[in-house]
Amino acid sequence: MNQKHFQNGLLILFCILLPLFILLLSYKIVLYFAELTPNQENTFNFLLDKKQQNIEFNDLQYTEQEIAHLVDVKQLMGIMDYIFYSLLLVLTLILTYCRKNKEVITKMLKYGGISVIAVELILFLLVLISFNSSFTAFHHLFFPQGNWTFPADSLLIQTFPLQFFVKISQTLLFQAFLGGIIFILISLYLKNESVRN
Question: How far apart are CA 70 and CA 67, in angstroms?
Fold first, then answer.
């Protein structure tokens, strides 16, 4: 395999991995800056604390089924952390390997940004067409054991109503979309710099 084919392979890999990385980065930012009610904050303290194995939620009285789902959510969030840092490592290695070739870096940032925007637009359309269907599909995919449905008057649903997830999703997708635009703008800047030099 010659150098050009290898670089093209890295470009394709970068364009595949970058949208997922940007999506996970947006998810982390949204969670960090989200305005939470006291009940939501107590729940997130458990979900984000890797050391805490038992749920001790002050005044909250979740049922066993709700606690089981929260434990599953916590495990998924841990997996997402591993994926996020693995993607960060791989993307950094790709950019470091190509750092001396500004033309390749510029291409990676441009096409990576385009791939981020394309993926975010597809996800946005899915959410726009039917948030409920997208939400259900997400839960079927990540919680196949089926312990994620609760009555409307349950504490977990009252603490995290559907509107909470709609708002989080909109903010997350918007931030990720902006991330794609930023990558494209950086690529244009680098291209202009190389033309001047």
Answer: 5
Q: Which two tokens stand for residue 52?
A: 């805490």
Identify whether the C-beta of residue 21 lies closer than 8 Å to the C-beta of residue 116.
no
Tokens matching residue 55: 């749920």
The rounded distance, in Å, linking the Cα atoms of 43 and 30 is 16
Whether the model clears a pTM of 0.90, i.e. scores above it, the answer is no
Q: Which of 148, 28, 147 is nearest to 82 (CA)?
A: 28
Tokens of 159: 């603490």
Total number of residues shown for the chain: 197
Distance CA 79, CA 73 (A): 10
**Strand runs labelled E in 8-111:** none
CA 48 to chain centre: 15
Q: Tens digit of pLDDT for each residue in 137-189?
A: 888 889 988 788 899 889 999 999 999 999 999 999 999 999 999 999 999 99
CB 173 within 8 A of CB 125: no
- The C-alpha angle 118, 144, 68, rounded to 5 degrees, equals 115
Alpha-carbon distance values, 178 to 114, 133, 184 (Å): 11, 25, 10
Q: CB neighbours of 162 closer than 8 A, spacing ≥ 6? A: 131, 132, 135
* Helix (DSSP H) and strand (DSSP E) numbers for the chain: 7, 0
